[in-house]
Structure formats: structure tokens, C-alpha cells
Design goal:
Pfam families: DDE_Tnp_IS240. This is Putative transposase. The chain folds into two domains: about 90 residues, no CATH class; about 100 residues, Nucleotidyltransferase, domain 5 (2-Layer Sandwich). Helices cover about 50% and strands about 15% of the residues. The chain has eight helices and five strands, in the order αααβββαβαβααα. A hairpin with a 4-residue loop joins strand 2 and strand 3. The longest helix has 22 residues. The N and C termini lie close together (about 5 Å).
């Protein structure tokens, strides 16, 4: 259960505000105005604090509760602007387009790629194969993971394929994230960017039906992750 102690608004208001910000292309000022029209007075700075505090917690619950994914992965990076500079959002989906994991990084190199693959494997298990682009860093990251698997696991390693067109499903999936982050016009700090993107990814997982919903709405599923 996620604790909402110390906030001066009802939990339902915080969850509604967070869900609509993370699911739809609105700015904090847009959301402030929308809530005002519904009789809820809250400033955009407070909305930002709610998202930064609670979005990563809800995202962690989404990762833990999502349905099992396929063992054929697609991995690539896209770009997110933070403090006026481009950072790298590592993302992976399975062959059916289901979200596996994501990680915002200030650098695009071997260490970042290796860290992402280890994180994704910890959450989803070892895949049979991973499709990547021609990035040497991503290839080296997978090779480093394979060395670890070879000597610490059952000897089974991951098949690596560098076939660009097979990653089209992931390129399409990037677009949803970009549609939501576009109106945000860049982030002021790395930690708030990472927190916000975690929430956007959680909303995207819900949108794709990866969380057992029992016939509830997307918002109800989101709220249940905080229960």
C-alpha cells in the first residue's frame, strides 16, 4: 500500500490529477485549470510534487503486477530533454509490443546499456533473444550480460540480433511516450524527469492491458496500484 500521509488533499484528488497528467498530453498549468473548473484549487507546483513523489511508487507496482511477457525482446533508446540537454530513455518491449522495462540515463554507453539489460532481466527473466539496432554500446552491453549468464547460470545465453526493421514495433511504441512528454517542454531536473517518465510508462502499461483489470476503467486500475 502506498502511504498518502502528510498531504492536504484527498487521495482520490491526487490520483485523478496524477493519472490525467501521466496519461494525457497536458501541462501542469493545463491541469491546474482543469481541476479549478471542477472546484479543486491546487497550484501547478503542488501537482508537480505529487507526480514526482507518487508516480515512481505506482510504476513499481505496475511492474510487479503486469502480465508475463514473451521471451523475444526489442530494445532501443529514444531522447528526452532534461535541463536543456538530451538524455537517453532506454526502453524494451516484447515481440507483441508489451512493455518490459525502461530506464532514463544521462549517458548512452556500455555501462548504461549493461545496467538496463540487468534491470530488465531482473524484472522479466532471461529472454531467448534480443533485437537491437547497430549500436556498439548496446551490443557490448548484451555481450557483457551473456558472459555473466554463461558462468553463473545454466550456460544458456541470449541470442542477439541486429535487424533494424524488427524494431519497428518499438519505434511505434516510443511515439506514445513522446506524445505525452511533448507538452511538458523539457524537464528541469533529472530526478523529476525519471519519476515522471516512470508514471507515464505505468499509464502506458495500463493502456495496453498489461495489468489484470477485472473490467475496471484505466483510472480504476491506476488507483488500485496505489491501494
Amino acid at each position: 500500500m502506498i502511504e498518502f500521509k502528510g498531504v492536504h488533499y484527498p487521495k482520490s484528488v491526487i490520483l485523478y490529477a496524477g493519472f490525467f497528467y501521466l496519461r494525457y498530453a497536458v501541462s501542469y498549468r493545463d491541469l491546474e485549470e482543469i481541476l479549478g473548473e471542477r472546484g479543486v484549487t491546487v497550484d501547478h507546483a503542488t501537482l508537480n510534487r505529487w507526480v514526482v513523489k507518487f508516480a515512481p511508487l505506482i510504476a513499481a507496482q505496475a511492474q510487479a503486477r503486469k502480465r508475463p511477457t514473451a521471451t523475444s525482446w526489442r530494445m532501443d533508446e529514444t531522447y528526452i530533454k532534461v535541463k536543456g540537454k538530451w538524455t537517453y530513455l532506454y526502453r524494451a518491449v516484447d515481440r507483441d509490443g508489451q512493455t518490459l522495462d525502461f530506464m532514463l540515463s544521462e549517458r548512452r554507453n556500455l555501462a548504461a546499456a549493461r545496467r538496463f539489460f540487468k534491470r530488465a532481466i531482473a524484472a522479466n527473466g532471461v529472454p531467448d533473444r534480443v533485437v537491437i539496432d547497430k549500436s556498439g554500446a548496446n551490443l557490448a552491453g548484451l555481450q557483457a550480460v551473456n558472459v555473466i549468464l554463461k558462468f553463473t547460470g545454466d550456460g544458456r545465453t541470449i541470442e542477439v540480433r541486429q535487424v533494424k526493421f524488427l524494431n519497428n514495433i518499438l519505434e511505434q511504441d516510443h511515439r506514445f511516450i513522446k506524445q505525452i512528454t511533448g507538452p511538458m517542454m523539457g524537464f528541469k531536473a533529472f530526478h523529476s524527469a525519471a519519476a515522471t517518465i516512470a508514471g507515464i510508462e505505468a499509464a502506458h502499461v495500463i493502456r495496453k492491458g498489461q495489468i489484470p483489470a477485472n473490467g475496471t476503467s484505466a483510472f480504476q486500475t491506476f488507483a488500485e496500484l496505489a491501494a
